[in-house]
UniProtKB/TrEMBL annotation:
Keyword set includes Nucleotide-binding: yes
Keyword terms, alphabetized: ATP-binding, Nucleotide-binding, Transport
Domain ABC transporter: 6-233
Taxonomic placement: Bacteria, Bacillati, Bacillota, Clostridia, Lachnospirales
Protein name: ATP-binding cassette domain-containing protein
Domain of life: Bacteria
Gene3D superfamilies documented for this protein: P-loop containing nucleotide triphosphate hydrolases
GO terms assigned for molecular function: ATP binding; ATP hydrolysis activity
Amino acid sequence: MREIVFAAKDVTKRYKNTVALKHVSMEVKKGDIYGFIGENGAGKTTMIRILTGLAFPSSGEISLFGKVGNDLSKERKKIGSIIESPALYLEMTAKENLEVQMLQKGVGSKKDIASLLRTVGLEEAGRKKAKNFSLGMRQRLALAIALINNPDFLVLDEPTNGLDPTGIMEIRNLLLRLNQEKGTTILISTHILSELHLLATSYGILSKGTLVKQMTAKELDEACEKYLEIEVDDSAKALDILEKNFASICTETVGIGKLIIRNYDQETARLLLILSKNGVQVKNMQNVTETLEEYYSKLI
C-alpha cells in the first residue's frame, strides 16, 4: 500500500459568516498527480492554505507524511508550493531570485541554481530581470523557487494561469518529468480541465466547500460515458431505422446529419449494415468518450 502523503479528516473552515470547507475528508498518495477541481469559491485554495500552514482548520485535522499536530511544521519542509500569484523580485534576475529565496528559507545551495534553471527551462535567461519576463517565464521561475528544497510534495494553485498553449504544454511536460523521474507527488489545482486530464492520476472534486467525489484516473475513465457518433445523409430516416431495429440503444440527433448512439453494446457492424441496407449512407463514424469537463458538469 502506498504511503499517504496528505490527508484531511473531517476538515471544516469558517470565516465569520462563511463556511469555506464543510467536513472535507480526502487523501493524496505518494506518487500521485492529484487534480483538485472545483468552481471559483469551491474551497480549493482554502484547503491548500491549510495544507501549507497559511491557514488552520476550524475543526477536523490534517496529516502530512503520516504526522499530525505539532509535527506538521517539520513535515512542511518537504513541500514546495505555488499559491496564488507567485512572489518574485522583479528587479532581480532568475538566478538572483533563487539566491534570495534560498537565503530566506535556509534551504538549497548556490551550486544547485544552474541545475534548477535548466530544469524549468530558464538557463538562457541570463541578466534579464524578472520584470521583463513573459508570464510563462515568471511561472517557470516560481516553479524553480518551489523546487529549491527538492520537495517530496509539490502543491500548485493555478500554475498555468494566463499562459498561452505553448507555456501550458511546457509546464505540463515539466510536471510529468518531475513526477516520473523524481517520484515527486503533486497536487495541482486548475480550471483548465482538459489539461488536467492529460496529467492527473487521481482527482478530488470540490463544490461549495464539500468534497463531491474522489477517484483515480482509471475510475474516472470507467465513469465517463462512451457513445458512438455517426454522420449520415438523412438523420431522420436513420433515427427511425435504428429505433425500429435496436430496442436497447438510445439515439438522439445533434446538429444536421449527426446522431449520437448510446448503449450500442459493440453492435457497430450490424448497425452499419442495417443502415446501409435501408438506404442510409454513413459518411463518418467515431467512438467518443466523455471528457473530464463533461463529467464534471454532469456531477455538479
